Structure formats: C-alpha cells, structure tokens
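FORM 7B: Structural annotation worksheet

SECTION A. Query
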Amino acid sequence: MAGGSFAWVVLFVAGLFEVGWAIGLKYSDGFTKLVPSVLTGVSMVISVVLLGVALKSLPVGTGYAVWTGIGTVGTAVLGMALLGEPVTLARVVCISLVVIGVIGLKFAH
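SECTION B. Predicted structure
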C-alpha cells in the first residue's frame, strides 16, 4: 500500500499528526480538558497508524527518525509561534540542524 514516494507522503502526514498531538498535550492541560484531550488522542492514533503504514516500505530506522524529526521541528516551531516559547539564535540553529538531518536521511535512503 505505501510504496515508493507514497510512503514518504504518508510518513510526512504522520509527522504532522505527531505535531498535532504534541501541541494538543499542552492544550489538554494534563488531559483535564475534554475536547483537546480527545483531539490529542485521535491525533496520536492517526500518527502511529500512518507511521506503521509508511514503515511497510521504508526502513524502520529512517522512517522513525524522519517521523520524530518532523514532530520535533513542527512542535518547536509551533511552540514558539503559538505558546510564546523563546525564539533564540541557538534554538533556530538547532532546529535547522534537525531539518538538515531529516532531509539527509530522506536522501540517504
């Protein structure tokens, strides 16, 4: 089902849902708010299911690293944009290094 470049698209979408559930954890307030908690849980399930689909045809090390990289970068950027987390040169450089690593893993596949 997830052959070739389609697997990469599925993996990217899985990463976006990972960002969704990571940010959702903050909005769920420790799972005390119903709607954010439900949306966070749904995002978790979708993210992991799509990761599993993508890993049918991608190497697990590469796929998992790219998935977590997308989640890491997306969560860090949204944390700065939505949650008022500090935007510092060091953070931007480190986020850029993660992006370079994810791109490198994609092309080293």
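SECTION C. Observations
The chain has one domain: 5-108. The radius of gyration is 15 Å.

SECTION D. Sign-off
Analyst initials: ____
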